[in-house]
Each structure stands twice: as structure tokens, then as C-alpha cells.
Design brief:
The complex is a heterodimer of chains A (279) and B (173). Chain A is of the alpha/beta class. In chain A, 39% of the residues lie in helices and 25% in strands. Chain A folds into two domains: 99 residues, no CATH class; 125 residues, 60s Ribosomal Protein L30, Chain: A, CATH 3.30.1330. Chain A has a four-stranded mixed beta sheet with strand order 4-2-5-10. In chain A, strands 6-9-7-8 form a four-stranded mixed beta sheet. A two-stranded parallel ribbon of chain A has the order 1-3. The two termini of chain A are 13 Å apart. In chain B, strand 6 and strand 7 form a beta hairpin. The chains are: A alpha/beta (279), B alpha/beta (173). Chains A and B meet through helix 3 of A and helix 5 and strand 7 of B.
Chain lengths: 279, 173
């Protein structure tokens, strides 16, 4: 059994958000450069150039690449042999978020949904906890911007809709979203499970290295085909026309009920930011 | 790349074509969801506005707090469509251009044409780059709204693309 102090969770979450909110990772940088080389639209190239410059400025100067430093999403993979002492996990995580957003001069974007009263410190975080084998605690910090979150969609398809129906729903979601989610985007897709679980696995797909090949050959093929079909719509960077709308489509599937076919599409803008720490 | 000084003359404004890349210099005002709600409430009550909307440039943005030693926090554009319910009233009050990202509704484009205004698209997510174009910043209304307060910015060479021109031509999807 491993003992982990809640104070160490706070410190890890603080550090992870201080890093994650600055700029997306190298995988996004590589994908943006590749897109800029291949983009045929002049305005599209101009926008991709600005984004490459922007992310460099953010890293060099230690300021957020995007002012929407998101709602704090935290994934905890807790080894089943871990024992946490000196505090509650959720409080420790929220304290880390609170400190990072204050010290980093990040935007506090979280408020009560109906009365729109800002909580003032970007808490609470949305915390997903998985119990996993072993005695480690992996923490993934993902500041999630809402320009892209707002365009996400879920639909309970009929089993008869099949693969074709899934693809049509994804394309329809993209057409409805247009330039609003700050393309180029990455699409996380979750197929199966229940209403909520399809959304959960769709968001988790955003943590994959951008453009990594799906180990499931069927999904790998769907990802490639969908990416090409989506980019062929011509919506382009920022919706101003061009070849680059999505940098990658990442799909997960999970067994579902004989009566159902849930499909969730979660957008991330190009500011796809996440940092992982293991205690 | 056309360089534009704000406010524009009507002639300059009508020369702009949808799709054209520009650099904006001059005064712009940040305002997003909550500030728009308050501005429209003031307009509806015919009370005095906290800043003059005649020929104003309204930038749909909610910046990060300013770090010590810097002019302004990261400040890319936010989604313009969320201001659809408010934009026509601001054009009616004389706003000559809005700056944001993403498409506008038919009603907003009609109002923009009727009032001879223009819509610029800035690059969503380019918050650090755009912060570098800000030469000075001053809160002019609703400081209690934090990131959603109205801030007067003096900008230099702020990169944008004409999304909807004064004739109503749009390249935004």
C-alpha cells in the first residue's frame, strides 16, 4: 500500500494547470505546421501561421495562448493500493485549481449556471475518478475551453442507423458547428455505453496524442475517413474557408444495449491542452 | 494587407471586401455576454451609456487578468453568435464594427447592412498574439463583471479578416 498526502495532490494539480493553461503540446504544434504546409486557402494559411506564432509567444512569455483557460477537468487514475491521508481528494484538487488560476493570472470562467454568479476562483473542477490496478496516482489536468465545448453534441441513434448513421451524425454536428468551435479542431467521439458514458469516453479521446493511430483497426479506418470527409466540407480554419477543419478525429467505442446506439461528439479547439503528473 | 485606423470613415468602411486581411489600429471596446446584457438594458431604458457607441468598434472578448508588468492579459475573440440577440441594438446606436469569431445570424447581418457597419473575424485562440497588439487598456464600465467588464483598448496592427462587409457579403461559416 502506498500513502499519498492530500497536500501532494494539491501541489500536483496546481503545477499541472500552471503548465497546461499556457499552450497546447508538441503534438498540436506538429499538426498545425503540417496543416499550414498543406492549406490552399490564403486566409486559412494566415490563420494557421498566427496560431503557430501565438503558441510560441505564449510559451516564450509564459502567458496563456488562449484567454479561455477553461473549466478545469481533472482525471484521477487512482491505484487500488493507494491510501490518501490528511484531507479529501476533491478538496485537494479544487485547492490546486484555485492556486493555479490565481497565481497564473488565468481567467476565472466558472459560475453558477442559472444565476450566473462567478465562483471567483475557477472551482469547482469536474473530476473523473477511475480505480486502476497498482499503487500510483495519475493526475491529468485539462483546462477545457467552452467555444468548442458549446458545439458538442450527443444523440441516441437507433441500432438500425448503424455505422452510416454514426458518420452522418458526426458530419451534421460539424456542419452545425461551422467556425464557432475555433477550427482547426480535434474531435473526440464516443460510441456506445449509456447516454452519459458515451460523453465520458468521447472527452477522454481528447487526451490522445493528436493524430495517433487507433489500436482498433475499424476505428482507425473510421477516424481517417471522417477526418477526410470533414475537411472536404471546406469550412476551413475559423470557418473562413479552406482545407483544414480538423487536425484529428479520435474515436472510442464501448459495448452498449441491444436497443441503443449512443454517440457523443466532443469538440476541442486547437488549444488542446493537458498535462499529466504521476504521484 | 490593408491597414485600418479606427474609427473608419464611411468611405473606408464601404471599400472593405469580405475575405480581405486587415490590421486594425486605434480604439476598441471589449464587451461580451454580460456586458451586452447590461448595455441593452441601458439602451432600452434610454439611460446614459457608460461610453459612446457612435462609430465605436466592439470587440467580443473576455481577457485573462493582466500579469504584473504587462499591458494586458491574453485576449482572443469569443463566439460572436452569442451576441446575436444584442448586436442589432448596438448597430442602431452607431457601432461601426464588431470583432469576433464565427458566424452571425441573418438578423444581425441585415442590421449590419442597414446601419452600414462591418464585421471583422479575429483568430480564435490567438490570445497571446493579440495581447501583444494592445498598447494600453482601461476599464470603462462594469468593473464588477471581472473578465466581462468593458475595457477600452488602444491597439496597433491587430490582425483580422473582413468576415461580413457593409454590403452583407459574408465568408463566415
Amino acid at each position: 500500500m502506498k500513502i499519498i498526502d492530500a497536500k501532494d495532490i494539491t501541489a500536483a494539480v496546481r503545477g499541472a494547470f500552471l503548465s497546461a493553461c499556457i499552450a497546447p503540446g508538441e503534438d498540436v504544434a506538429v499538426a498545425l505546421c503540417k496543416a499550414e504546409n498543406e492549406e490552399s486557402s490564403p486566409s486559412g494559411r494566415e490563420i494557421l501561421c498566427q496560431l503557430i506564432d501565438n503558441n510560441k509567444i505564449a510559451k516564450d512569455e509564459g502567458i496563456p495562448s488562449c484567454q479561455d483557460t477553461g473549466m478545469a477537468v481533472v482525471y484521477l487514475e487512482v491505484g487500488q493500493d493507494v491510501h490518501i491521508i490528511n484531507g479529501l481528494v476533491a478538496e485537494a484538487v479544487n485547492e490546486g485549481v484555485r492556486r493555479a488560476y490565481a497565481e497564473g493570472y488565468f481567467r476565472k470562467s466558472v459560475l453558477t449556471p442559472i444565476n450566473r454568479e462567478n465562483t471567483g476562483d475557477n472551482t469547482p473542477a469536474v473530476i473523473h475518478t477511475d480505480i486502476v490496478p497498482g499503487s500510483g496516482l495519475k493526475i491529468i489536468a485539462m483546462p477545457k475551453g467552452f467555444g468548442s465545448e458549446n458545439m458538442s453534441a450527443i444523440r441516441m441513434l437507433k441500432p438500425s442507423d448503424g455505422r452510416e448513421g454514426i458518420e452522418e451524425f458526426i458530419l451534421e454536428t460539424v456542419r452545425n458547428a461551422g467556425g464557432s468551435p475555433c477550427p482547426p479542431v480535434v474531435l473526440g467521439v464516443g460510441i456506445g455505453g449509456t447516454f452519459d458514458y458515451a460523453a465520458t469516453i468521447s472527452k477522454k479521446q481528447l487526451l490522445r496524442e493528436v493524430g495517433s493511430v487507433n489500436p482498433d483497426p475499424q476505428l482507425a479506418q473510421m477516424e481517417k475517413e471522417l477526418k477526410d470527409k470533414i475537411n472536404a466540407l471546406g469550412i476551413g480554419p475559423m470557418g473562413l474557408g479552406g482545407d483544414t477543419y480538423c487536425l484529428a478525429v479520435h474515436i472510442a467505442q464501448f459495448p452498449t444495449h441491444i436497443a441503443g446506439l449512443p454517440v457523443a461528439v466532443n469538440f476541442s479547439c486547437h488549444a488542446l491542452r493537458h498535462t499529466e503528473v504521476t504521484l | 494587407m490593408r491597414k485600418i485606423t479606427l474609427p473608419m470613415t464611411k468611405e473606408q468602411l464601404f471599400e472593405l471586401q469580405a475575405g480581405e486581411a486587415v490590421q486594425l489600429s486605434g480604439t476598441i471596446y471589449t464587451a461580451r455576454d454580460a456586458a451586452h446584457k447590461r448595455l441593452v438594458a441601458i439602451i432600452d431604458k434610454k439611460e446614459n451609456l457608460p461610453f459612446d457607441l457612435q462609430d465605436a468598434a466592439v470587440y467580443y472578448a473576455g481577457p485573462c487578468p493582466t500579469k504584473p508588468g504587462r499591458v494586458f492579459g491574453s485576449c482572443g475573440p469569443t463566439t460572436s453568435g452569442r451576441m446575436n440577440a444584442y448586436a442589432p441594438k448596438l448597430f442602431d446606436m452607431g457601432v461601426q464594427c464588431t470583432i469576433g469569431k464565427g458566424p452571425l445570424s441573418r438578423e444581425v447581418i441585415d442590421s449590419l447592412v442597414e446601419n452600414g457597419a462591418v464585421y471583422f473575424c479575429a483568430t480564435g485562440g490567438a490570445g497571446a498574439l493579440i495581447a501583444g497588439c494592445v498598447k494600453s487598456a482601461e476599464t470603462v464600465a462594469f468593473p464588477d463583471l471581472g473578465a466581462e467588464a468593458v475595457t477600452r483598448l488602444e491597439v496597433e496592427n491587430f490582425p483580422a479578416i473582413v468576415g461580413v462587409d457593409a454590403k452583407g457579403n459574408s465568408i463566415v461559416r
